[in-house]
Amino acid sequence: MRAKGDSRKVSAPAGDWAVAQTNFFKSSCYGASAMEFVLSEKTLQEIDRVLDEDLLSSGASCAMIVDRSGYLIANRGDPSDMDVVALAALSAANYGVTEEIARLVGEDNFSLLFHKGKNESIHYTKIGEDFFLITLFAKDVSLGLMRLKTAKVKTHLTPLLREDI
After folding, report:
1. Cross-strand pairs, 89
2. What is the rounded CA–CA span in Å between residue 160 and residue 16?
3. pLDDT by residue (tens digit) across 51-100?
4. Alpha carbon 128 to chain centroid distance?
5. Tens digits of per-residue pLDDT, 19-48?
6. Is residue 63 domain-resident?
């Protein structure tokens, strides 16, 4: 979530820490797999632009970039008063569980992770090894359109997220 000015506010689970300062975002995670990354303000602005132009303009109500540990990196759109930090953490756990289920049945991964609700749906897209995109959209928005748009976002953000790490 964006704080006043150029800083990012990040909430971290107990025992972990994250630091947000003007001009960059730094996160360190300790657990099953340690990961540390720094994203420049320029990269964060580009992520915001891509999410706005490719997803929100196509009907998504909310789009988030989350790391594998559940840290919320970017959040665009209207999350309808939900706790986006909790959604990010739970989604990371959900994605991790789904990857393990895929392995148990002999798959590398499932190509589509999607939850359809009565009014709102959630589409997950893995971006590289360390990040994923969560896209929320209403029942009147086509899943096919969201799949096309999230594929475009993935293509654009994959090299962008790699260059700052």
Report:
1. none
2. 25
3. 999 999 999 999 999 999 999 999 999 877 889 999 999 999 998 999 99
4. 11
5. 333 334 444 443 444 456 678 889 899 999
6. yes
Residue 98 pLDDT: 92
Which two three-digit tokens encode residue 148?
Answer: 């096309």
Residue 15 CB partners (closer than 8 Å, separation 6+): 30
Number of domains in the chain: 1
Integer Cα distance of 154 and 150 in angstroms: 6
Examine residue 119 and state whether it is found in any structural domain, yes or no.
yes
Degrees (nearest 5) of the Cα angle 147, 151, 154?
135
Contact 135, 74 (CB under 8 A): no
Please write down the HEC assignment for all residues of 85-107.
Answer: HHHHHHHHHHHHHHHHHHHHCCC
**Is 112 within the bounds of a domain?**
yes
Separation between Cα atoms, residue 163 and residue 32, nearest integer Å:
24
Q: What is the pTM of this model?
A: 0.76
Q: Which two structure tokens, joined as six digits, stand for 16?
A: 């972990």
Tokens representing 45 are 């602005």
pLDDT bracket for residue 161 (50, 70, 90): confident
CATH number at residue 129: 3.30.450.30
Averaged pLDDT score across all residues of the chain: 80
